[in-house]
Amino acid sequence: MKESIDSILAIDKKTRELVDSTEKEIENIKKDLREKLTDIENESIERAKAIGKEKSDEILADFEKKAEDLKKENEKNLERIEEFYSENSDKLIQNAFEMVIGSKSNV
Questions:
Q1: 3-state DSSP call for residue 47?
Q2: Residues with Cβ < 8 Å from 85, sequence gap 6 or more?
Q3: What CA–CA distance (Å, rounded) separates 107 from 94?
Q4: In terms of DSSP H, where are the helices of the chain?
Q5: First and final CA of the chain: distance in angstroms?
Q6: Nearest Cα to 46, choosing from 58, 54, 57?
Q7: Residue 92 CB contacts under 8 Å (≥ 6 apart), including other chains
Q8: Cα(91)–Cα(107) distance, rounded to whole angstroms?
Q9: How many CA within 13 A on the CB side of residue 15?
Q10: Could you read off the pLDDT of 52-72 as tens digits, one per residue?
Q11: What's the pLDDT tens digit per position in 4-27?
Q12: Cβ contacts of residue 88 below 8 Å, gap of 6+?
């Protein structure tokens, strides 16, 4: 009988040790998993930042190119206006003068 009780107690002790060992292993696996998930999350955040910066740089470069193209177009328009004015300034001044004082003076 004593042997049976000792055997049961030994089995119970081994079972507790096995349960404790299993629980510790489970906690270690959970801890490792949390660390890996945190690493993956951080890597994802860094990749997202890099992609965001890349897209932002592309948008800014495109905007700067469009702004430069518009500036060049405006400069060409200004040159044409200045050229037109230079070629026609006497006629424009004469027309403005006639509009202000009338096409024919009644003097």
A1: helix
A2: 92
A3: 19
A4: 2-101
A5: 148
A6: 54
A7: 85
A8: 23
A9: 6
A10: 999 999 999 999 999 999 999
A11: 888 898 999 999 999 999 999 999
A12: none
Contact of 73 with 81, CB cutoff 8 Å = no
pLDDT for 42-54, tens place per residue? Answer: 999 999 999 999 9
Spatial distance between the Cα atoms of 67 and 60, rounded to a whole number of angstroms: 10
Q: pLDDT for 82-99, tens place per residue?
A: 999 899 888 888 888 888
Which sign, positive or negative, has the C-alpha torsion 68, 74, 78, 79? Answer: positive
Token output for 17: 């040790």
Per-residue confidence (pLDDT) for residue 107, from 0 to 100: 45
Q: Which residues of 39-65 are buried (b: 16+ CB within 10 A; e: fewer)?
A: eeeeeeeeeeeeeeeeeeeeeeeeeee
The DSSP secondary-structure symbol of 106 reads -
Report the SS3 class of residue 104.
coil
Residue 18 in 3-state DSSP?
helix
